[in-house]
Design goal:
heterodimer; A: 534 residues; alpha/beta; Rossmann fold; 4 domains; 8-stranded mixed β-sheet; 30% strand; B: 299 residues; 2 domains; 10 helices
């Protein structure tokens, strides 16, 4: 028997004190008598006995105290030396997703752990460290149940060999479960379970997207790489596919040299309804499918209802322009009614109250030509403004040639505050003839002249200007969802993983049996017996 | 469990008041003896195998069978013993119990016992009889004094007697070895009774006329009223822790009464008187306290 806390045995020093306390009190008065016999006879006649301490009662009390003191000292017996802790280093890097007969290496590792944990003595403390991707630590019951370890992902950032050397002690066993991917050599300390993930693999390394939002043009630049099972230098055949939210599926068959990256570009027309755009690489004998698929979640393209407003006496430039724009962006021209929602407003002349009392243009997608935006605006006719100039950097006019633009009549003071992109050069002063009012998610474009008062509709740049005004009025492009994050480069080449022989776990120590409860029981029994002893 | 007990010290045995009282006490002899000298002489006679025949006495249990008068039995059909007046000088033997149990009491019984011995011895010296002081356990266990002039030596001897545990049978045997036994005054507490019964009969059968004396102490009458007491027998060192309450007090008094009866019965069976003497105020002795002793001696 061994005591875990022998310092509690000091409590036994109280036994002499208890012995003293258990003795009956000593009389302070003494009487000498020759009649002891008469005293004894009188006591006997009254059935009395002199107060006396009972040795048996004290022995039972002492046994109870000894039992309590020894129980407090935590006695235990038996037990076999050996580790009492187990630290599991579980490789959860992306390469552990490699499947063999439909079961991933990670699932095999977890099953092996569960099987081993069932045979593990109860007293062994188990800690599971998920190494690779997000580091997770599970201890005790959660470790034995392998709770919430996730799926293999990411790269193996920890050096399992160094980690095993640090963890392994006389009292602590370490067990590494890995496929060796990303390791120079397998851990030399502790138990080892190696999972074979050797084989060929093709991966999409990167997908670059050039979006023409809100237009349907889409360009995909895809980097792919393949690793042959036999090593570098071998050529492998693969097919790159673009499926889903596109007007037509794209397939590109290619020959890849092992370990050499290939970039291919797809020019696509997005489906205006949006949806998932799947990019996948198909290769025979690919053991790691997780890095073969790239999914883009495309939002639906805006398909606005375009309303055209024009003064009655004007030509139908506005209607023609609206029809041209609707065809360009896949929208439709609708009548301007109060019950019909309008996504884009095209106005030629007249008055449209878009400016509030604070002088700020309401957030609305609008393109106006010589239109007053508020009743309070006092429009002053401006005959033949010249010379004209335009911005070379504005998104509306960059690359456009407006040198042929002629304006017969314009109006001063009808433009709201905004970024000028067209103006009349008056010495060093620029008098705006066209401004872009940026409202963040929306924008509006305003010009100080009507279409019929200029030759703008006749210029080649006019459709581009309409299109750019439409694109700019939709602000920032809608976000494209991308999933999943690709497998790290270090996890792709499955032919370079470190390999080694499995090593079994050491014999764990057996739990020492506590004897404290028996001593407590003996103490209680002694106290119970003492209750019956006089 | 036996433990060493502390024995009380005895107060001065014969203080000046007592010594001054003693001559007056001895002088009372005449008035007490007057008119009854012949009768007293007859009563003081000690049975002996030799001496002059002075008459008969009815047989009492314990009498020496050799002194039965068979002729008188033939004539009357009843037992009579022959009364012979001894030729030796009339002697008195005072046997003193020096055992530690005599230290019990407040004041100690030993004080009264030794003063009683002094009075009895003084009376014997005053009658020109010899007195033998038998004190078993002392270095000089038996010492004889004669004549009134030796009264101071007697007192000195008594004062020097130690406390010694001696059995009652030893005391009886020692008394019988005295030069001339005569009348035996046995001063003791006579407790427990059974230890004294056999020695007393032995003395009686050997022809000694024994008178028992108990110098009483208040504890002979009643137990302490209450309290938690350690009761110790100084002779055996046996002790008892006793919580004394009213019931125990009454029961102990009843036991002490029974003891007194047993003592009287024991002496009655031996044909001997037992005198219980209360010494009174030991610090200021007075004549009246001692007159019962003188009276008892003259009977």
């Amino acid at each position: 028997m061994t005591l875990a806390s022998p310092e509690y045995l000091w409590a036994l020093l109280a036994l002499p004190l208890l012995w003293w306390l258990s003795q009956p009190p000593k009389p302070r008065s003494q009487v000498l008598t020759p009649h002891m016999q008469q005293w004894q006879l009188a006591m006997r006649a009254l059935r009395r006995r002199p107060p006396h301490g009972s040795l048996l009662r004290f022995v039972l009390l002492a046994l109870a105290i000894i039992g309590a003191a020894v129980a407090a000292a935590q006695p235990f017996a038996g037990g076999q030396s050996g580790p009492s802790r187990l630290v599991v280093l579980l490789d959860a890097s992306a390469s552990m997703a490699v499947e063999t007969e439909g079961v991933s290496a990670f699932a095999q590792a977890k099953q092996k752990l569960l099987t081993q944990f069932e045979q593990l003595p109860e007293h062994v403390e188990v800690t599971v460290l998920r190494c690779g991707g997000e580091l997770r630590r599970r201890h005790g019951f959660a470790a034995r149940a392998l709770q919430d370890l996730g799926e293999p992902a990411g790269s193996l950032q920890a050096d399992l060999n160094e980690l095993a050397e640090q963890v392994e002690t006389e009292d602590c066993a370490v067990w590494t479960l890995t496929d060796g991917q990303g390791l120079e050599r397998l851990p030399s300390m502790g138990a080892l379970s190696h999972f074979d993930t050797h084989g060929g693999n093709a991966a999409i390394d990167a997908v670059r997207l050039i979006d023409s939002w809100p237009l349907k043009d889409l360009r995909l630049e895809i980097d792919v790489v393949a690793y042959a099972a036999g090593g570098s230098g071998d050529a492998v055949s693969a097919e790159l596919q673009v499926l889903g939210a596109t007007t037509s599926e794209q397939r590109y068959r290619c020959q890849l040299r092992s370990g050499v990256m290939l970039t291919h570009t797809f020019e696509l027309q997005r489906d205006k309804r949006g949806g998932e755009l799947v990019v996948q690489l198909v290769m025979a004998g690919d053991r790691l499918p997780a890095d073969d698929r790239f999914v883009l979640s495309l939002p639906p393209l805006p398909a606005p209802r375009i309303a055209a407003l024009a003064e009655p006496d004007t030509a139908n430039f506005a209607t023609v322009a609206a029809a041209t724009l609707a065809e360009e962006v896949g929208g439709e021209v609708v009548a301007n009614k109060s019950d019909t929602p309008v996504g884009m407003l095209l106005v030629d002349g007249g008055l449209v109250p878009l400016v509030g009392d604070d002088g700020v243009v309401a957030k609305q997608r609008a393109l106006t030509f010589g239109t007053r935006l508020a009743d309070s605006v006092d429009a002053e006719v401006w005959q033949s403004p010249a010379p004209l100039d335009w911005s070379r950097s504005s998104p509306l006019t960059v690359g456009l040639d407006l040198s042929e633009l002629r304006i017969d009549r314009a109006w001063r003071g009808i433009l709201p505050r905004g970024e000028p992109f067209l103006w009349q050069q008056d010495g060093d002063q620029r008098v705006p003839l066209g401004v872009l009012v940026d409202g963040g998610a929306t924008a509006s474009v305003h010009l100080a002249f009507r279409l019929q008062d200029s030759n703008l509709p006749l210029l080649a740049a006019f459709p581009q200007l309409l299109r750019r005004a439409f694109v700019r009025s939709y602000g920032e492009a809608a976000a494209i969802g991308v999933s999943p994050v690709g497998v790290p480069a270090s996890e792709r080449n499955l032919s370079v993983a470190a390999a080694g022989e499995d090593r079994a776990l050491p014999e764990f120590g057996t739990a020492a049996q506590s004897l404290a409860q028996w001593f407590v029981l003996a103490g209680l029994l002694a106290l119970a017996l003492r209750a019956f002893v006089r | 469990m036996l433990r060493k007990i502390s024995l009380p010290t005895t107060p001065e045995l014969f203080p000046e008041p007592f010594r001054a009282l003693l001559p007056a006490l001895l002088a009372t002899r005449g008035s007490i003896d007057a008119g009854r000298i012949e009768q007293l002489r007859a009563r003081r006679s000690v049975l002996s195998q030799s001496g002059s025949f002075v008459g008969h006495r009815r047989y009492e249990r314990g009498d020496d069978l050799r002194r039965l008068d068979w002729s008188a039995y033939a004539r009357t059909g009843e037992f009579f013993t022959k009364q012979l007046e001894e030729d030796d000088r009339r002697a008195v033997t005072v046997v003193i119990d020096l055992s530690p149990s005599m230290l019990a009491g407040t004041p100690p019984r030993r004080l009264g016992a030794l003063r009683l011995a002094a009075v009895l011895g003084g009376l014997a010296l005053a009658r020109a009889d010899g007195v033998s002081i038998v004190a078993p356990g002392a270095s000089n266990a038996s010492k004889r004094f004669t004549g009134t002039a030796q009264l101071p030596q007697l007192l000195e001897h008594l004062q020097q007697l130690p406390t010694a545990p001696v059995s009652s049978s030893t005391a009886a045997a020692l008394a019988l070895q005295a030069e001339s036994v005569g009348r035996v005054h046995w001063i003791s507490d006579f407790a427990p009774v059974q230890e004294f019964s056999r020695p007393l009969l032995m003395l009686r059968r050997r022809g000694a006329k024994v008178a028992g004396w108990i110098a009483t102490v208040p504890e002979d009458e009643a137990a302490p009223a209450g309290g938690y007491l350690r009761v110790v027998d100084p002779e055996t060192n046996v002790e008892l822790s006793v919580p004394v309450d009213r019931a125990l007090h009454d029961e102990l008094r009843r036991q002490l009464v029974l003891l007194e009866r047993q003592q009287r019965r024991m002496f009655a069976e031996a044909g001997s008187p037992l005198w219980r003497w209360d010494q009174g105020d030991c610090e200021n002795p007075c004549l009246a306290d001692y007159l019962p002793v003188v009276a008892a001696c003259t009977r």
